[in-house]
Amino acid sequence: MSDTSDAGQQRFDRGMGVLESILGESGRGIIDRLADISPELARQIVAWAFGEVYPRPALALRDRQLVTLAVLTTLGGTETELEVHLQGALTVGLRPEEIVEALLHAAIYCGMPRAINATLVAKKVFGERGLLPVAAGDGTAGGS
Amino acid sequence: MSDTSDAGQQRFDRGMGVLESILGESGRGIIDRLADISPELARQIVAWAFGEVYPRPALALRDRQLVTLAVLTTLGGTETELEVHLQGALTVGLRPEEIVEALLHAAIYCGMPRAINATLVAKKVFGERGLLPVAAGDGTAGGS
Amino acid sequence: MSDTSDAGQQRFDRGMGVLESILGESGRGIIDRLADISPELARQIVAWAFGEVYPRPALALRDRQLVTLAVLTTLGGTETELEVHLQGALTVGLRPEEIVEALLHAAIYCGMPRAINATLVAKKVFGERGLLPVAAGDGTAGGS
Amino acid sequence: MSDTSDAGQQRFDRGMGVLESILGESGRGIIDRLADISPELARQIVAWAFGEVYPRPALALRDRQLVTLAVLTTLGGTETELEVHLQGALTVGLRPEEIVEALLHAAIYCGMPRAINATLVAKKVFGERGLLPVAAGDGTAGGS
Amino acid sequence: MSDTSDAGQQRFDRGMGVLESILGESGRGIIDRLADISPELARQIVAWAFGEVYPRPALALRDRQLVTLAVLTTLGGTETELEVHLQGALTVGLRPEEIVEALLHAAIYCGMPRAINATLVAKKVFGERGLLPVAAGDGTAGGS
Amino acid sequence: MSDTSDAGQQRFDRGMGVLESILGESGRGIIDRLADISPELARQIVAWAFGEVYPRPALALRDRQLVTLAVLTTLGGTETELEVHLQGALTVGLRPEEIVEALLHAAIYCGMPRAINATLVAKKVFGERGLLPVAAGDGTAGGS
């Protein structure tokens, strides 16, 4: 039941604020692309996911993005969402080395191909932000 | 064992008729693309899936396409097949609002990214048919 | 942000009504089991999934359960949820022959093992309700 | 459309012969369990999978079972099917060391948990056949 | 190639130390169960996953367990591993409220059933440790 | 812990030799693309997967590639990896007819869409090598 009440609008507005603060323009882009095909899906992502779940204080935003990246990596076929959430991960304070290490760690449990694919999306996002190369994460310089 | 008997040919012919009536040219296209790499896979899709399973009277074609869309959405990485089956879904009588609502509903169980991806494929298919915007499905006008 | 406002309570109450009318005691059971470990997950299932998405008029409850069964079958490892939603599927009017045929149909797209597993859960649920054997769905008597 | 023609019966009979020769009593058990809930699913597994696909000469039965084990391992949540197909794998000539090595190899691509779960099913099946311990597969004795 | 060199033994010993410090007896139990069926899988989990990947300083152990829980939840059918890693998550400092909130957060991306299943495993683990009920994570008391 | 010891270098060198002998230039390409984003992921693929697991004598390289193709097909969303490993499969002696038959066989267990997608990647790889059309695999000429 589309909640067009005042309370529903409040949740939507709060959600849009949270979404934009984490995901920026790229996150807003997905919502806009959905507007003429499934306005309710767009509304639920904003009002429910970002308006109700994300703002809960029980888990830091940084940790939420770590979980989000792990789930998207494991699912596979989520390159569009990964690109947006990798940007969000940087925004909420995850460092590039932490992100690529998290993907390496995920490989233990979801296998190499999922980790490779997510890492190549990270390469694209980090490259656009001038964050390459990422250090090896073990105190040595990058490169194999 | 490739069934080249008369009965096998009958099943293939029946299947091709069913496939073309539901999926039209786009469905035929996948079969054609498989012909020189795996003629038996092409043949089984036609003779078995469309020749044996689809025509069974126990489930309406409209319901079959609803199930097909839900499975393809959940699997992920099936954009090619989704595009074909979204066209089929419209052909057998599912309305655009029902389809996008089914994808929203699926999101409860398979998560937002799978639903977003399938919805964006629907946007492409519906757009090509002049079916955008889709109404919000709750009695209000489209748009968030 | 846990929505403890009047509007939030309304959504929860509406959701619990919808949940109980579709899933009955078994659905309520899952919510109860979550209460002491993740009250917010329980609340979101009720207030969001059943309070906001399920009641939307754009898709019939019968079709929602068909989609739900297809998603759960495809995901795999969801026996607990399947058992509850198979009961819900019967409650909202899907006939046993339609359900097992939907699972056979799903097998085309998600493979035989997922369909077999879901069908064996259906056997348990239907058996408890005295609905076995299910007819072959093609006008002939049951049995292979 | 249930194929109750002579050709359909031939395919079923051929399939049952193939199924029993590979999977033995345990494979027959799954078919029997499906008989009163979805006789058509049972029939399609036998007539299509085992009557049409398995007997094709293009791939050896041993290789088919290797593929089957890899797919079931990757899917997860398929313990029932894995148990049956592990027995089939032994029957068609895969050695225990090859099977456990295939599961280790699969871990590179589908992750450790899926490989662990399938390996523990293999432990059950091999244990019942007195095939434990399995050698380390590298020329050294078993044990870590 | 089973690495039975001194370096290989060092990696194994380091890995077993890390594994035991995080996962305790329950983690050791999985390794032991694998010993007579796939000693090399057991060895690789210890020497590679825990001996090489886990000890890398680029990601905190707490964050690794958060990623592990998210991947296992998304995969589904991993109850055995989840039980072990939920204990590990508590050991490395994730609080119960953080864990259940992470599973709620994951539900946005992988769907409710996967989150429910993982949360019910958490209920078992937390219950055995006297950690129930878990607070609602929003400043209010537990219970819906 | 990045293993920069002599033993670690040996494993890396051995792995790179195995990787290049199976996957050739295309496999090396993935490693190179990872170098500036996640040098450790690149190193682990080489040193662990190809340096430790692949060379073990317990399973023939041909069988390893068969397993790899089955896992990648089942996962879905792995087109990049499939392309590389299809080339590797040909290199280690799997015949084109065996490969497409393995994908047809996999369809029984993971469904038609995954098999279709992998087969279309095979069409691309085989086409570049002048290996089309592939024979039907049943003694008859190609084509449906």
Automatic annotation (TrEMBL), chains A, B, C, D, E, F:
Spans traversing the lipid bilayer: none
Pfam families per the UniProt record, alphabetical: CMD
Domain Carboxymuconolactone decarboxylase-like: 39-123
Matches recorded under SUPFAM superfamilies: AhpD-like
PANTHER family found in the cross-reference section: 4-CARBOXYMUCONOLACTONE DECARBOXYLASE FAMILY PROTEIN, GAMMA-CARBOXYMUCONOLACTONE DECARBOXYLASE
Record protein name field: Carboxymuconolactone decarboxylase family protein
Natural source organism: Rugosimonospora acidiphila
Lineage: Bacteria, Bacillati, Actinomycetota, Actinomycetes, Micromonosporales
